[in-house]
């Protein structure tokens, strides 16, 4: 599956222009409009999980970048005790 139009271009732009990454949190609609991201892709970009972004066709490297810039977790978290308890 190919990512919706504009999504990869938007993320590539933010890779090259880190000063604009704050817009991901403060004004994502401005970025979506500038890169002509399809309306149906916007909710997934705003709140979708790693798996939902991937299913939409966003490259894995870009998924992680987008989630970091959005302030959302990139991986599921678990208590450290989970790791240590399994070592016994």
UniProtKB/TrEMBL annotation:
<protein>
    <recommendedName>
        <fullName>Extradiol ring-cleavage dioxygenase LigAB LigA subunit domain-containing protein</fullName>
    </recommendedName>
</protein>
């Amino acid at each position: 599956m190919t990512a919706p139009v504009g999504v990869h271009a938007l993320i590539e732009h933010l890779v090259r222009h880190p000063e604009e990454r704050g817009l991901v949190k403060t004004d994502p609609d401005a970025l979506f409009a500038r890169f002509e991201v399809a309306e149906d892709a916007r909710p997934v970009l705003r709140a979708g999980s790693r798996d939902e972004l991937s299913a939409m066709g966003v490259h894995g490297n870009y998924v992680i970048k987008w989630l970091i810039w959005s302030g959302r977790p990139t991986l599921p978290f678990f208590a450290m005790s989970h790791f240590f308890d399994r070592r016994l």
